[in-house]
Amino acid sequence: MTLKKQSIVVAGGGSTFTPGIVMMLLENLDKFPIRSLKFYDNDKERQKQIADATEVIIKERAPEIEFKATTDPEEAFTDVDFVMAHIRVGKYAMREKDEKIPMKYGVIGQETCGPGGIAYGMRSIGGVVEIIDYMEKYSPDAWMLNYSNPAAIVAEATRRLRPDSKIINICDMPVGIELRMAEVLGLESRKEMDVRYYGLNHFGWWTDIRDKEGNDLMPKLIDWVKEHGYITPKELEGASEEEPSWEYTFGKAKEVQWLDPDTLPNTYLKYYFYPQDEAEHSDINYTRANEVMDNREKHVFSECNRISNIKTAEDAKLVADDHASYIVDLARAIAYNTKERMLLIVPNHGAIENFDAEGMVEVPCIVGSQGPEPMTQGSIPRFQKGLMEQQVAVEKLVVDAWITGSYQKLWQALTLSRIVPNARVAKQILDDLIEANEDFWPVLK
Ligand code: NAD
Ligand code: G6P
Ligand code: MN
């Protein structure tokens, strides 16, 4: 069967993840053929550096693909089947502030969790909604696959503001953890596992993992994780390719797992269970944003500039991001109705029986050309339910604050976050964040 060729626009063409996604798309052309690839960004200079290298790469490896980079929405969003969106409103300069402002008050600063995530959410909502509107104006049949963060807040905002839009929110953390689980189990692919999982984005648990014959793989995984977290056997022998902060996170997962010995946790729960440990472990003068700017950003941009200068990508040190292949799985599921089972962020609507029907939850879904069909996960225990009720309320209050311009709601959101110790500190952080975000947030009254 010949597969229909697809037209894609990557929104956030200047992202550090764009080259990895391009390489991944090129490696998957047999499964997901592409006729046109476009980049869209609102920072022309930043995007151009990635685009110039991409042009060289495509000319060498898949010259049949039409490639274009633009900052013009009409040009970008016309005649596309998929919008793959990974924008960062405010870029790393603002991520750095999200991380450092809470730390002034002894509170952990993180990209998607706690006050940092809330601040980022208040910036992202408008940017993501703008991209949906461009898509619907210029390619009304297209789907938007969104991984712009903070995905939990963005998903709640788009559910409320654009309820009929074809947008699916997805995260790569479960994929990344499942790759590690497969290594622990000695499997060739994480796709040999069928998983049950529930939670919110960056806030969930695996409850059941089986091989294709139905054998239970949880006992072996639990034995490993309670001792080593998600550090793999190879890494334990000293072969880690991770940056120190991620290595620490994968190790810390063991202490997170101890809270519920029957399940396996998402790594991000560490910020909610051990916020003081995280605050103590971080350095206000050098946060994750600094680490990313010094490593990934420098590497990606210098490599792209090198490729466009020498006009060949033969020895390119840009590699397909294997995490990113989930994006092709998702696009394929929609384009060719593959009915693949994937973890997605969707409206609960009963998937978790005893949880808010209107909460955006992360659960396994069967994905076909009509979109995701969530799989029911039954009732959840009081511990997780309590945590999730609190966190989903934080996310909903942020969206309330953005929509109504309410200072009070945002103060409530910060106060309700498990990461913030009390309402006074919440207010101090909020006032600093308002000042830092005046170019990005709606005016709060
Ligand atoms: P980055 O800053 O390198 O790239 C983001 C790009 O978005 C920049 O080029 C910027 O100019 C552009 N941009 C900002 N606002 C825009 C707007 N309104 N319209 C168009 N373009 C805009 O960031 P990065 O580290 O590469 O990350 C990109 C995004 O992907 C972030 O939101 C990050 O959190 C997210 N991400 C999500 C997952 C996930 O699990 N869902 C995984 C990895 C990265
Ligand atoms: C994971 C998460 C993403 C997050 C990223 C941060 O992949 O799922 O949501 O954006 O980590 O990575 P960074 O390397 O930018 O700190
Ligand atoms: Mn994520």
UniProtKB/TrEMBL annotation:
Membrane-crossing segments per the record: 7-26
Q: InterPro entries, from UniProt?
A: GlycHydrolase_4_CS (IPR019802), Glyco_hydro_4 (IPR001088), Glyco_hydro_4_C (IPR022616), Lactate_DH/Glyco_Ohase_4_C (IPR015955), NAD(P)-bd_dom_sf (IPR036291)
Cofactor(s) the record lists = NAD(+)
> Which EC number(s) does the record attach to this protein?
1.1.1.-, 3.2.1.-, 3.2.1.122
Q: Pfam families recorded for this chain?
A: Glyco_hydro_4 (PF02056), Glyco_hydro_4C (PF11975)
Task: Kindly list the GO molecular function terms attached to this UniProt entry.
Answer: maltose-6'-phosphate glucosidase activity; metal ion binding; oxidoreductase activity, acting on the CH-OH group of donors, NAD or NADP as acceptor
Active site residues according to the UniProt entry? 172, 268
Q: Where does Mn(2+) bind?
A: 171, 202
Q: Which UniProt keywords apply?
A: Cobalt, Glycosidase, Hydrolase, Iron, Manganese, Membrane, Metal-binding, NAD, Nickel, Oxidoreductase, Transmembrane, Transmembrane helix
Identify the residues that bind substrate.
Answer: 95, 149, 288
Q: Where is this site: Increases basicity of active site Tyr?
A: 111
Residue ranges of every copy of the Glycosyl hydrolase family 4 C-terminal domain listed in the record: 197-420
> What is stated as this protein's family in its record?
Belongs to the glycosyl hydrolase 4 family.
Q: What is this protein called?
A: Maltose-6'-phosphate glucosidase
**Cofactor details (free text):** Binds 1 NAD(+) per subunit.
Output the GO biological process annotations, alphabetical, semicolon-separated: carbohydrate metabolic process
